[in-house]
């Protein structure tokens, strides 16, 4: 990333690595002896230029996507800001307009940029120069339209396609920018378009309305003083997020009072971090002045949707400074391996074109103005490089994409990158996420472990009984005659179970929401805590499953607002708790906590739950935590450790004072808050472990079996812990039961990595399981050795992986193996991996559509991947290979005939066919049957799914190789020579008869060759053959200038054309029969 950014920074040398600036190292400097330097150092030159001679034009072109007036509109640099509520005119700097613009071009740059993108490739430029050369009389070979019509057709298709896409983008942007919102002003509530919103405006957002700009949450209409946001279009997570208003403004009587107070928000500079925010709210006219810290909980980011109530916010960022816009990156433009191979073949064809042209001039002994003759021959044989190849392949890809979309057996599948469907037919490595991709992301509570006793699904009735006993049996007046030991044990178990269930019911961010069910309205349901109307909302499915479990055992969460929580006991009693502090879960802390006060007793308790790796150092010493966490993880359960700590009033007041002071800090806030929290997070009482299971998706096992049999190696990259990831891999049969597993020991140094790699090298045919930390060390010191060993494994599981590591692994696989990779994921953390892979597949799941929208292909279930690769990927690749080679064959045939014709007539640079004959040959006469090859298939889809080994043959690239290319070249030379020599031998008097005989034979040969190539006939193929033949027969009437119409009605013409066509095609039909008879391909054995 840094290297790509350097080119934008003034003063950075573009050749920094060459001149020693790419890597800063210590140095030994000899006094007065510069020649003794150990490395190259940069020249002592001051350079404040943004561009150099070579980068000026490209960089100016690239920057056209950015606002050209960025510095004028306040985007030159990002700075913190002070925003006065309701007074946008008090701004300290100019801010960008609140306009969403996803267009690639504008009115002035559209045509220049489209033409530049089209002709920056050599072969497109070659055809343009070819057409332009016909304006020079000495180089002209025929009518201008024979060159300009094909070129114009290709260009029109490109321009129209880009224009349609650009218009769609413009309309989408216009719809978003024109949405109407309500704004609080001194004149009351006024309507304003989204594009007219400014920093400092007070905006009212209704329920189910999109937030138009980044705002600070000031007020809500909800009674509980909070609101929920749907953030799936921002972070890919479908669970609602709880947001809290500024306490000072929420207490105001009405929203209009926001304009009467003198207050402002101090906000940090705009950045891309959607999970954090640092700011403060200050009210100056208070007595005393009010200062409140602002965090992510007080924000309403643009592109989120308000899910509950009506909210009022003050705008702090607009336009290009929005978090959602700054996180929008343009994915790399993916060019398929097939396209690169076709480009390689066209380069060979261009070389052949130059060689043939030089040979023709050499055989003339370079007589006269031979250099002009070279150009004329280059033009004459230009058909060797077919201009129609790119058009046919692009149209074929559109058909393949349409077939994928319309396949009823994989409903909901979308193709977002229609340029690479054939890539799906050559995948060697599949990298998949675990949660939500292989698993359903639907959590089921499975285990409660108290250390001495564990409760599974079959013993939850015991837990329910203990909870019931805790609220019904008095604990202080037991009869003295009862056995004291037994009583003590029983009370201890009841007490421990009760404490554990109570902690789980309190330490979460779940909010019960009541909805009308048709019988009871929302207000009544909320008042009486109706069970049938209650649904739980949280930012994690784990949280919901835990609260649903506590409800099932008798302790039900029935109410929650910003400052309180209500639980209902098995006896129907309502327990009220005041929420004093909440410490939300983050990926860095891996834990969450809450401090509550029990209203009935006044006790203050700090509850905390989190991952075992962080909680082990927080809870009191015990001898069972690590072992039991490992046991539960090996069962495939996601483990959480629950603990508590009782606080006195004095302890809490002391903590609160220090915590509030730390949160008000603008600089190093996170560090100061963490320091205060550490004083509280120590010597906590361990209550229990919880185990939640994430179930596998439907048909994951057979799908992975199909992929493995197809020769595809599957790697699982997950952020989950090692034991859980290993268990899921076994459960999904990613790792087979008879396969050895090598679990890579944790390493931190180069020496440890070296020893562990040597130990791994001694094992053969075993699956590898490695953590993200160890992976980072191995890649730092032994990248080549590690990748070499990992690529030999039948399966690899990488756990505790960050999104950056996932993308890095994909990139290394591409670089080290040269094979095609496919990445599959369902969440926002998989986007970087999906965009880095050769083929990215997004699964629409519980975590939203962010991965699906960023992917090249979108599926609704993992099992659809099997058909996508085995059927559509295989067919797309084989059809593309056949189509490309046939288009090349079609062009080489007519070029060979031209070469024979020129050779016979003393190497004259005279065209054999002129005018419409040249255009008609590649369009209406042969286009339909040749393009119908996109419907061909060698086996039925059921057979392709039943025998995935057929896919393995494609990994070697045999359908399109130098061998098959050479075979088609030889066939083209043979047929072109036979047709031309046959016409020359059999014609009798007039030259025009040569044209009639040879051209008719050529058309019939192409139609017969299509029939020879087809393996499974489709009714459209027959229509294409007959339609082309009919078009040619009908057009003969209008071509008096090229063909003798009376001659083609004679018997002489018919028998000559028949003989030539049979001689050119019959040997190939015989060879095909013999090959099928004595050396049949694999697929033919399955269809017979």
Outline the structure in words.
This is Phospholipid-transporting ATPase. 43% of the residues lie in helices and 17% in strands. The protein has 1088 residues and is an alpha+beta fold. The two termini are 55 Å apart. The chain is elongated, with a radius of gyration of 37 Å. The longest helix is centred in the C-terminal third of the chain and has 41 residues. The protein folds into five domains: 79 residues, no CATH class; 131 residues, Calcium-transporting ATPase, cytoplasmic transduction domain A (Distorted Sandwich); 238 residues, no CATH class; 173 residues, Rossmann fold (3-Layer(aba) Sandwich); 211 residues, 3-Layer(aba) Sandwich (Calcium-transporting ATPase, cytoplasmic domain N). The chain is built from 37 helices and 33 strands.
Contiguous low-pLDDT stretches (5 residues minimum) are 1-22, 60-75, 476-491
Structural class category: alpha+beta
Range of strand content? 15-25%
Number of helices: 37
- Compute the separation of the termini in Å: 55 Å
Instruction: Please summarize the sheet with the most strands.
Output: 9 strands, mixed
**Helical proportion, percent range:** 40-55%
Quickly count the domains. 5
Rounded mean pLDDT is: 83
Domain P-type ATPase N-terminal: 87-148
Binding site for Mg(2+): 433, 435, 826, 830
Binding site for ATP: 433-435, 543, 585, 609, 638, 718-720, 800, 806, 829-830
Subcellular location: Golgi apparatus, trans-Golgi network membrane; Membrane
